Each structure stands twice: as structure tokens, then as C-alpha cells.
Amino acid sequence: MLGNPMYIPTFDDMLEAHARIEPYINRTPVRTSAYLNELTGAELFFKCENFQEPGAFKVRGATNAVFGLSDEKAKLGVATHSSGNHASCLSYAASRRGIPCNVVMPTTAPQAKKDTVRRYGGQITECEPSTTSREATFAEVQARTGGDFVHPYNDPRVIAGQGTCAREFMEQTDGLDIVMAPIGGGGMISGTCLTLSHLAPEAQIIAAEPEQADDAYRSFKAGYIIADDAPKTIADGLLVPLKDLTWHFVSNHVTDIITASEEEIIDAMKLTWKHLRVVMEASSSVPLATILKNKDRFAGKRVGIIITGGNVDLDKLPWTL
Amino acid sequence: MLGNPMYIPTFDDMLEAHARIEPYINRTPVRTSAYLNELTGAELFFKCENFQEPGAFKVRGATNAVFGLSDEKAKLGVATHSSGNHASCLSYAASRRGIPCNVVMPTTAPQAKKDTVRRYGGQITECEPSTTSREATFAEVQARTGGDFVHPYNDPRVIAGQGTCAREFMEQTDGLDIVMAPIGGGGMISGTCLTLSHLAPEAQIIAAEPEQADDAYRSFKAGYIIADDAPKTIADGLLVPLKDLTWHFVSNHVTDIITASEEEIIDAMKLTWKHLRVVMEASSSVPLATILKNKDRFAGKRVGIIITGGNVDLDKLPWTL
After folding, report:
1. Residues B25, B18: Cα–Cα separation, whole Å
2. Which residue of A162, A249, A259, B171 has the fewest C-beta atoms within 10 A of its own C-beta?
3. Could A319 and B320 be called an inter-chain contact, meaning their C-beta atoms sit closer than 8 Å?
4. CB-based contact (8 Å) between B310 and chain A?
């Protein structure tokens, strides 16, 4: 079932994914900050997926896809396109199984993310920073290598894997009123929907998105997928559009999508570095940015925020540019 | 007993401290990085004391001192001098008990640390950045307020409190061959000695110090305390000299003291931010810096490193200056 790209993954698929990936991933800790609670009026819990070995939650879905392959299929390796973290995480998962990994990355991807892919033995082919160019370049790479295509988010194996994060989060916090994550293609949000619609159907699921790449927000309001070809935002993990599988979960289970400006995202990023003392990407700061501008909505609530990644070019921090 | 400044704290004092402070401190997580293990050839465990609410291990000793005061003594509050984190942590502990806190800080203390003290309600009096000026200014402040003097490290209550960190660390890791921490005045190292000399007497305790503030190293080699008046290093938490109580532990229980240059410290700091994805101070990077230049000594060993603090001026990162 999971081999069919249109298959909608189930709660049991998530449980199976969790059992499969547990030996290879970290059960990441949850951080809190009395200062940030005071500042927002909410009770915030931060799930540190930036503390996965390759620095992002995407290692969950990637590991589920890689270790779910038959031995025969695994020999040809895996292939993908990604603006960064999925590429690193798929390379990492492939290296753990000892199989090849080919990735197509935009020329604009941060150097830190390219370095990580190469460190895990991933082969990079560069493309222009647009969805069109990425998909064309990928078709060529995949035809050449024959590797199993692991889409960064529109893949049932990937969504089932990402759903394992929300399961841990609920166990670690004894329940949450709201769970938030940034939204790009919607992989983490879809996995969160998959898990919480069974484990905690009363919990709100709120996605956070940069104003300058608000295609998911506009899709959510319109009722159908709207895709931009080349949005620009400091939150470089959130440049890709929703696809059919993630749209299924977003349209059926997400409570709301809220946006924040570039300046608000950078302020929230710096605030988290300073008070949580964790290194996280601009993309991961979007949820806190949206909470800070909508305090009434979150006041008194137990709010879980998934810190999606921590691969940052330390020489190009947004507040020092 | 603990009220006598010359009293040498015992293992039971540490256990009592742990029971006293547990409601107010975090049992901080331990982080590992396959990448840093590969780079060093050792198995590294990082105890994230930067994840204490006020951002440093010093909240342990400060909380033990504050909550150990009689109600009568507590009314007058506490007072101290500190180059930074002890000031924040004592202010934090005092605010948790609702008592006043007066601190003398050098004019050169990082703005981030001053901000933190003020956020917790601490009253700052500034002095010149030398031991002489600090002690003179403090005498005046203490005479004026009558607050209980909680020395940043040469205080049995403080050392017993810091010792609780090593206890957690050994439980969380199922044992370590070597435990490392940076050394300034020697409070954390002394607490570590206190605890490990009972819990794991075979474990090595190695202190790490900046070459440019290597008074503990020279004291250790000479066999008596050598104090510099105004050393200069990027590791601004390590500017103070050993005192009699900490010298007792350092001279009796520390296996060795190793030093690192400013450049090595900055490189290790950036490496940890990048691969552990935690925000930590330059002071906290000294142990990893010394491991990287002495790999043979640590190869194959289970090495615990205490990340002592994470209060950093994000606008003045050493590698962007």
C-alpha cells in the first residue's frame, strides 16, 4: 500500500514507521522557557527536532522510506529533490543502510545544507531555484540512476514517518491544546494531522507560514492548491508548494494557517536562540512569530511547537547581515 | 556546618542540596553527536546546563544557598560579585524565593548577562574588571545591604549545589571514563570532584582552561594558588582565580588541567553550535577545544563534557567580529 504514491497513510502505518525508525533516530527532548511563557502568555513546549543527528525532523520520513525498501530495490538506492533538509536526511538514512543517494538541490540552497549532504555521501546535482527547474532536473537524474524516488513530502512513507514526532510529543508533554509547525510542502503538518486525528482529535493543529511564501495559506482559504513557482523568504525550508497527499491532510485536519513577516520571523529566531539556547533555522521560528502577533488566541493554552531544523549558515545569521 | 565558609562540603551535603533544589532547576538533557564522535575518536556526552532557565549550571549552587537560608536571614536577601552567570543565577534563585539580590559586576560583563540579572530583579553595582576592584566594591555593597554573601564558587553551599550536576550526568550516561568542565574559580570542577570521588572514584576529572587565563593550570603544576589580577580571554566566564575551598578539591581530586588558545576555543564553539545545535558560551567550548588538540589522550574513551552556560551576546559572535 505504502508503495502507491496516492495511498493515504493510516495511523497503523505511523505506528509501523515508528517501530522501524526508532533504532536510527533520536527521541528528541522537549524544551520550555519560563521567559517565553511570560512573554506570550501561553505555556509553550518546543520539540527539538533540530537535535536529530542530521539536524531536522525529515530524518523520520526519510528513514522510514529507506528502511522500508526490499533488499532488491535498496540496491539501486534512493533519489530526491529538496531545498535542503530532506536531502541531508535522506543521505543520512541511506548511509545508515549503506545504499546510494542522489539529490537535486537548488543552486541557492545554503552551503551548510550542501555540506551536510556531501558529508553523508549524498551525490548532489544542482538546479535553478524554481519548482519547474527542480522537477525537470530530477527526472533526468532519476532516469539515469534508477533509485527509488522519495519525495520530500508527497509520499505516504514520508508522511507516516513525520507523524511519529507528534506521537512522541504528546507522550512527553501529557497532552497539548494546540500543536504548531511551519508549513512548506506540508509533510510535517500532514504527519501531525495523521497522528493527532487519532490520538488527540480535540487538539488544534495550526500551521505557520511566511507572508512572502504564503501559498499554503492562500490554498487553505481558497479550498484548492495554489502553487507559487519561486517565492523568496529567509525561511528557506518553506519554499515548496502543497501536493495532493499533503493537501488531503491540510484541507481535512488543519485548524488554521497563520502568517508572519520576514522581520517577525527573524525576531522570533533570535529570541529563541537567546532564551531556549538552541540553534534553529528561520523556518522553525515562524510558529513563535505568529504566536507573538496573535497572543490572545494562544493565551493560557498548552502549545506545542515543532522546531523543525537547525542547519544554519553560522556566517550568515540574518540579524548580522 | 554549611554556614561556615571554611567548611568542606561532603557527599551528603550534595545529596541534601539535590533534594532542596530539584523543584527549581531543570534536569538538563545530555546531547551526543555522531559527527563530533567521529571527529575526535572519543564517545562524547554533553550535559546541557545552558538549558537551565537562567542559562547556566550556577543556578544549582545559587539555589542551594538561597533556599538553605533561614526565613530570618532570607529577609535581608543575598549579595555577590560575579563576572556574569552567578549573578544571573543568584538573582533568579532569589526571585524564586521572593528575596532581594545585590550583585557587583565588572563594567566589561556582556550586555546579555547584565540584562538577565535585571530581568530577574537583581540590583547591579558596577566595578572595574579586576579582582581587586570587584572585592572592594562588593565590601561596600554588602555592608550597606546586610545580604547573605553567596560567593560565586568559594562557598560550601555553592560547591555542594554544583555537585548535583555530576550526579545526574552519571545516571543519564550509565557512567563515564572522563568528566570535563572548564575551570575559572573552580566551582563546577569542585562539585564534580565532590560527587565523583564518591560515586565513581575511578573516573578522571579533567579541567580545561584558556591559555590566556591559565592561572588554575599554573597553580595545579606549582602546587599552590597562583592568581592573575586581570586576565583577558574570549571565555569571559573563566576570569577569576581559585580560592581555598576550590583549591582543596582541585589539588586533591583533579586528574589534570589542559589549556587551549583563543582560536582553538572559537573553532570549538562554532563546531558545537553547528553540530550539536546548542547555543553555548565560549567558556563552555574550552573542553572540546582541548580534546581536539589532544585526541590520543581521549580516543575510545567515554567523555562527559559539562556545557556550563549559554548566555551569549548574539550580536557579537566571535567568528563574525
Report:
1. 10
2. B171
3. no
4. yes
3-state secondary structure of B229: coil
**Cα–Cα distance measured from residue B292 to residue B269, given in angstroms and rounded to the nearest whole number:** 12
**Quick check: A314 and B51 CB within 8 A?**
no
Interface predicted TM-score of the whole assembly (ipTM), two decimals: 0.92
Cα–Cα distance measured from residue A102 to residue A108, given in angstroms and rounded to the nearest whole number = 18
Query: Pick from B33, B277, B314: which is nearest to A278 by CB?
Result: B277
- Beta strands A101-106 and B256-260: pairing type? unpaired
Has this prediction a pTM greater than 0.90? yes
Q: Do B34 and A53 touch (CB under 8 A)?
A: yes
3-state secondary structure A232-284: CCCCHHHCCCCCHHHHHHHHHHCCEEEEECHHHHHHHHHHHHHHCCECCCCHH
Domains of chain B with bracketed CATH: 11-57+155-320 (3.40.50.1100), 59-149 (3.40.50.1100)
B31 touches chain A (CB under 8 A): yes
Closest partner CB to A320 (pick from B33, B53, B320) = B320
CA distances from A12 to A9, A160, A161, A195, A271 (A): 8, 9, 11, 9, 38
Do B286 and B208 form a contact (C-beta atoms < 8 A)? yes
